[in-house]
Amino acid sequence: MLKLVTLCFFIALGFKLSAQKIELKLTDSIIGEIDYFYVDNIGNIYLSNQDIMFKLDSKKYDTLFSSSLKSITPQYIEASKNFRVLIFDKDRSTIQFLDNTLSSFSDDLNLFNLDLVQPILVCESFNGNAFWILDAGTLRLLKVNDKFEVINQIDNLSFLKEMDELPTKMMEYNDKLYLFIPNQKILVFDAFGTFLKSYPFKYDDFSVHKNLILAYKKSYFDFISLPFFDLKFSYLFDLNPVKAFQVSVQKLYVLNNSGIFIYQITSKN
Fold first, then answer.
1. Using CA atoms, how far apart are residues 192 and 184, in angstroms rounded to an integer?
2. Cα-based angle 217, 221, 226 (whole degrees, multiple of 5)
3. pLDDT of residue 27
4. Is the pLDDT of residue 88 over 60?
5. Residue (of 63, 78, 59) closest to 249 by Cα position
6. Residues 132-146: tens digit of each pLDDT
7. Neighbours of 259 (CB within 10 A)
8. Where are the alpha helices (DSSP H) in 34-182?
9. Fewer Cβ atoms within 10 Å of its own Cβ: the N or the C terminal residue of the chain?
10. Which whole-number Å values give the CA distances from 266 to 4, 149, 183, in the listed order?
11. Rounded to two decimals, what is the model's pTM?
């Protein structure tokens, strides 16, 4: 049964914000035990169940490839680059890169080999074909290249000691790096790791898309404009509990205990 939700909020169009009527229509679902997922920029879905990875196509969500990783269990998946998939096993402090067929094209990289103490977050970087690592043990932020060499290191993150919790999410988008501390704040850095600003952010999770942040708190989604973090619209979302979500190719993908639910986003004047 399809459900249609109509809402109005400010959506970014180019460099201007204009009021739009938005329809959010549930169009499909992927039911099953899913631990983590990621949607690439053409709508292919990468998901994991324990140590098994799947890649689904963007139209009928048929399985294109699957892989048993055995030595690593994904706790983070990112397929923002079209030539590789980054997976991170936080418990083993290990990352691995897969190709578009979910075949490994690199050995497992144990992050302790980079003299890290407690690596808790990783994400891709588009500046220098690198990736970021946050080490909670030494309060360092490192950028590592495709040869696994540290090319940039930021040591002045001592202010994280003042937080009640450590960051739980990190992502780079449009030359900004976001560190998210649940129900406290978002820390914003530039693409080189220079700290720019801290914003109060009382939410459970967030995703960045174009010039908007989509933020989730209990049963509500808030749409917040960048770069000034202005709240534009808030609405009640009744698919709970939300474990994770992502906006990609004009669709909202929401993961809960039953699977992934996919909403088409359309705008009208």
1. 24
2. 105
3. 94
4. yes
5. 59
6. 999 998 889 999 998
7. 16
8. none
9. N
10. 11, 43, 30
11. 0.88
